[in-house]
Amino acid sequence: MARMSNKRRLEWSFFLNDRSRITYNELCRKCQHECKQSFRAVVVDCLKYLSKRSKKKDKTAGNGKIP
After folding, report:
1. Cα dihedral sign for 37, 39, 45, 49?
2. pTM score > 0.70 for this model?
3. CA torsion 5→11→16→22, rounded to 10°?
4. Phi, psi torsion values for 30, nearest 5 degrees
5. What is the pLDDT of residues 42-64, one digit of tens each?
6. Which residue in 30, 27, 28, 25 sits closest to 40, CA to CA?
7. Going by C-beta distance under 8 Å and a sequence separation of 6 or more, which residues neighbour residue 50?
8. Torsion angles phi and psi, residue 52, rounded to 5
9. Which of 9, 15, 17, 44 is nearest to 28 (CA)?
10. Tens of pLDDT along 15-31?
11. Quick one: how far is CA 57 from the chain centroid?
12. How far is it, in rounded angstroms, from Cα 61 to Cα 67?
């Protein structure tokens, strides 16, 4: 296994776990987008994440038309 250089270790220090492995947030682990957040982040605000339990937004709402 290749070791990480000191410069790269400093850049990734927020993402490194106790075993010195890069670790992402639980919501970001299986995400296909590149905007991954650290496992240390408490609040995750991702515009590309859509929970299966979230309420679906009505696409016609807010466009000025009366349903």
Report:
1. positive
2. no
3. -80
4. -100, 5
5. 766 777 776 677 666 555 555 55
6. 25
7. none
8. -70, -20
9. 44
10. 999 998 999 988 888 88
11. 21
12. 9
